[in-house]
Amino acid sequence: MYDVKQSLPMALMAFVCAAALAACSSGATGKSTAAAAQSAPAARTAAAPASGEGPAPLADAGPVAVATLKELMDSTVDPAADGIWEAVAVRSTKAGVEHHQPRSPEEWAAVRRHAITLIEAMNLVAMPGRKAAPAGTKPGLGELEPSQIERDIAQKHAVFVSFAKALQGTAQQALTAIDQKDIDAMIRTGGDIDAACEVCHVTFWYPNQH
User: Fold this and answer.
1) Domains by residue range for the chain, with CATH
2) Rg of the chain (C-alpha set)
3) Local structure of residue 144 (DSSP, 8 states)
4) Better pLDDT: 110 or 26
5) Residues 192, 173: Cα–Cα separation, whole Å
6) Short-list 60, 169, 67, 41, CA closest to 125
7) Summary mean pLDDT of the chain
8) Which residues pair with 96 in a beta bridge?
9) Which of 60, 100, 102, 182 is the most core-located residue (most Cβ within 10 A)?
10) What whole-number distance in Å separates Cα of residue 19 and Cα of residue 25?
């Protein structure tokens, strides 16, 4: 006959052993999960580039002055100013006096582009560290050596920037006159642009001319 008194302790021991094994298994699984969770950030950190490595963001580099002032003047400033000055003129011909001015939408758009170019070119002119002229450039009649021009601009950079801003302001007035198709104002601001250019040239390029 089956002895209940003898089998009960044995069943109880079996249950306790099973419970203990389950607890051990659960603890091992928990430790494995925790270790994996802790190792993931470490792996991500190891995979990420160290601080200071790799290319710097473009925003950190900042703008770089590449063209010299002479190149900027020849390629951008002078053509833009000439486009404004030549847009309005009174010419004497064999047929009589000719009043030249923009008339078609395309002609107004062209002179407006010149004004915009001149306005924004002054931001480039005012950038610090720009060379006066390409290496080997000989000074023009009455001009200082490019190296001397660079030294003077560096020493009086605030004055140089104020001249650029003054020219930018007159170019903005010319833009307003163009948008309003005001011929008289275009003539007036054209003279102001010429004066603003000249005061800078006399100060930094040929200060010894009288």
Assistant:
1) 67-204 (1.20.120.10)
2) 39
3) P
4) 110
5) 9
6) 67
7) 81
8) 93
9) 102
10) 10
